[in-house]
Amino acid sequence: MILIRPAAAVLAACLAIAPNGVAADPVPSPSVIAPDGRTIAAARDKVLPVVVSILTVREDFKQGEPVLTVSSGSGTVVTPEGHVATNAHVTQKGRSFRVVFADGRELPARLVGTDTLSDLAVLQVQPPAPETFAYARFADTLDLAPGDTVLAMGAPWGLSNSMSAGVVNNPRRLLVSLFDDEADYEDRLGADEPTGRYYAWIQHDAAIAPGNSGGPLVDLSGRIVGVNTRGMIFGGDLAFAIPGPDAGDIVRALVERGEIKRSHLGFRLRSLKGTGEEEGVLVNSVERGSAAEKAGLRAGDRIVSVDGVAVNALQPVDVPALQRRIAELPIGADVRLGIAQKGTRRELRLTTRAQPEDRGEERAFAPFGASLAELTAAMGRRRNLEGERGLLVTGLRPGGPAAIARPALEAGDLLVKVDGKPVPDLAALEAVAGEPPPEGRPLVLEYRRGPERRIALLVPKHGDQVRVPLPELDKAWSGVEVQPITSSLARELGLPGPGFRITRVYPGSPLGEAGAKIGDLLTAIDGVSLRAANETSDLPFHQRVRDLAVGQEVTVQATRGGQALALKVSLRAAPANTASLRTLALTRLRAQTRELGFFDRAARDLPASQQGVMVDGVEAGGPAGLAHLQRGDIIVRLGEQPVQDLGSLRTALDAALESGNGRVIPVQVLRGAETRILYLERYWLTETP
Questions:
Q1: Are the CB atoms for 222 and 26 separated by under 8 Å?
Q2: Which of 113, 130, 190, 632 is deepest in the core (most CB within 10 A)?
Q3: Which pLDDT belongs to residue 10?
């Protein structure tokens, strides 16, 4: 049986080298350390000070649009140069990173490398001046046993410097239940990005929560024995960590080379569980056209040796170590596989090739209003698109160019050519369609939809999107809000009859200038009675007014305190409503803004002279969101310049960026009854797309 690592009974070496260049002293095995308060505190003090929170601005794609959000995870400083080990899913789709230390210091970080197959990544903090960092060490051998005390450290829910204690439940666990088909294990762990292929997990019950991902699992010697990765919502405190020795190997390789190169032979394995066989490992599937298929390997064969060394995988938990052994063969090496099938033995010779990418880069292409992913060979096989190269449409912006192309594109289409030029990757698409076409002519797209090859015409759109609404005909406006009063309600209230009771009078409104007040009951216009259909809808009153002409002189009959009134009113055009105002989607701020309208000022009791720009929407992970701008804020100043309208907002942002003064750009906003000052960080403005 192939084990992940040979067990070590007494001593464990450490991955890292001490700062003086001497290997760290051996530490006692955790099995001989008593889990009392003093030993727990000693282990805590070795690691917790170098556990960090990671703030990731990630770019996801929804309906073809890039959406920036903020997520958090945990990590551990593992070198004096400030390398931080964490999970790949913490950095996944990350566009910018910040690392927060235990003392509250916050530093930017760069992504050194990521390995999705092991779900590990390495960041390196970028201090303003060179410095040497304290760091923790990985265990070099996996010597955990059920019942050993372990400490989970990290930032659950973004709360830094947290620690929980528990015990190891099982040091070698595969997430395959008694009811699962182990052949589907990898695909269940990640669509298009399988993970956990090369190790079994450490199962423990130290409490973890979202935000703990990437944080260390520590034994009582203060070694990193695991990297916490997964938790279970159901089933109590079930948590799973990548074994520390495996994680240490991957992290060290990422620090040294920035990537993990593995070999690939073109087949998948499963254990012998349920087969009745007791020798070797089962070939579960073989890729069509692979070297393995050409060499004669078939699904159902058993591999009993690799380069003359016997292999066994009786249970699912035995398979990852064998897959890792094959993956660590040199790329381009000749490999001898001993094969058993129906009582016969044979030997196959294969040449390894580089492990292909499981998933290609995904990006939103604004001129098309679509998100697209580069199709890898693995993605092509899963979609019956073998041999094809192109860009897979993963989402469409409603009403965007791709959604209204002739005919419209759909998610799942494979874009292969634009204006007759192949687009095998995103760089090729940028080269072909990154600039506006002459005279705004449409582009001819060629794409695959299932087995069909289709064409479409698409007119791209470039730059910040300004929406100018279509002009509307002026409509008469009285300038009040009303509450419907039915006949029965009027009787109960002791009012003289039905009508519409004024609940608000807008400043400078026609009825206001005619002397109307809150509480007046409007009963007729030019002698025609006003009757409420029910006690909830004020539409009959407003529709009656809109049916009149702008500038028309009318007499509105009303009662006030039992006295009849006749209000002479000159109707005016209604102010523009929200839907009639111009909007501007600012790419650099990742915010949606619009003109400030009459009803915005009225809702906040602002003077008619108040200028500014309304914030209509903010992406949480964009520069505006990170500055804590909110929907409903009114921007009145940005940097050194006042903001009166959409044009001046864009001008003020350009000027602030060009000035380069200071680390932040102040933004003054009106929020509720307050005037607030917020700060845009130049770092986020330059690092986020």
A1: no
A2: 113
A3: 25
Q: 145 or 289: whose pLDDT is higher?
A: 145
Q: Which two tokens stand for residue 40?
A: 């727990």
Residue 662 falls in which region: left (phi positive, over 0), alpha (psi -120 to 50) or beta: left
Q: Which residue has the higher pLDDT, 236 or 585?
A: 585
Which pLDDT tens digit goes with each residue over 224-278? Answer: 999 998 876 555 578 899 999 999 999 999 999 999 898 888 888 988 888 888 8
Please write down the long-range contacts of 672-680, taking CB distance under 8 Å and 24 or more positions apart: 672/604, 675/636, 676/633, 678/627, 678/628, 678/629, 679/627, 680/589, 680/623, 680/624, 680/627, 680/656
What are the start-end ranges of the H helices in 81-181? 88-91
Would 184 be classed as within a structural domain? yes
CA–CA dist 121, 649 (Å, integer): 39
Whole-angstrom CA distances from 670 to 606, 625, 635, 650, 681 are 10, 16, 7, 18, 20
- DSSP one-letter string for 195-238: ---S-PEEEE-S---TT-TTPEEE-TTS-EEEEEEEE-SSSSS-
Which of 328, 354, 380 is the last residue in one of the domains?
354
Of the chain, the percentage scoring pLDDT greater than 90 comes to 55
Q: Which residues contact 61 (CB under 8 A, 6 or more apart)?
A: 67, 362, 364, 371, 394, 395
Locate tokens 């903090």: which residue? 125
DSSP 8-state secondary structure symbol assigned to residue 280: B
588 and 668 housed in the same domain: yes
- Which of helix, strand or coil describes residue 91? helix
Rounded to whole angstroms, how far apart are CA atoms 618 and 600?
18
**Which residues are known to be catalytic?**
89, 119, 213
> What is this structure's pTM?
0.71
Q: Which amino acid is at 280?
A: G
E strand or H helix at 293, and its extent?
helix 291-294
Residue with token string 């609404």: 469
- With beta carbons less than 8 A apart as the criterion, state whether 427 and 450 touch: no
* Number of neighbouring beta carbons within 10 Å of residue 88: 24
Q: Which two tokens stand for residue 416?
A: 């292969």
Residues 248 and 185 both lie in one domain: yes
Residue 100 CA, distance from chain mean position: 20
3-class DSSP assignment, residue 37: helix
Contact between 608 and 634 (Cβ < 8 Å): no
Residue 499 shares a structural domain with residue 569: yes
In the block, residue with structure tokens 């923790």 = 136
When computed from its CA atoms, the radius of gyration of the chain, rounded to whole angstroms, is 33
Q: What is the CATH number of the domain that holds 510?
A: 2.30.42.10
- Exposed/middle/buried for residue 200 (C-beta within 10 Å: 0-12, 13-18, 19+): buried
Report which of 61, 20, 143, 36 is spatially closest to residue 365, judged by C-alpha positions.
61
* Tokens representing residue 493 in the block: 């209230």
3-state helix, strand, coil in the chain (%, to 5): 20, 35, 45
| Token representation of residue 388 | 């094809």
The 8-class DSSP code of residue 26 comes to P
